[in-house]
Design a protein that fits this description.
Elements: E1 2-7, H1 17-21, E2 26-28, E3 34-36, E4 39-41, H2 45-54, E5 60-62
Antiparallel strand pairs: 1-4, 1-5, 2-3
This protein binds iron/sulfur cluster.
């Protein structure tokens, strides 16, 4: 099973909290907008969900 991480780049304000939570899953591009690993293993679900929880814009969805 894999976990899909979707970032709504229109909502993202580039605060970077997700990067602090899991810097191997999330990063900021040159315009300070979040980019995420698209698919990760089930073992990373908790990390991805924690990042989604801390995002002030609720821009991260974990499926
Ligand atoms: S925490 Fe949310 S608003 Fe901040 S960079 Fe990540 S996705 Fe964007």
């Amino acid at each position: 099973m894999t976990v899909r991480i979707v970032v709504d780049r229109d909502k993202c304000q580039g605060y970077g909290q997700c990067v602090f939570e899991a810097d191997d899953l999330f990063g900021l591009d040159e315009s300070d907008t979040c980019v995420a690993a698209a698919e990760v293993g089930e073992d990373r679900r908790a990390d991805a969900e924690r990042a989604a929880d801390v995002c002030p814009m609720q821009a991260i969805t974990v499926e």
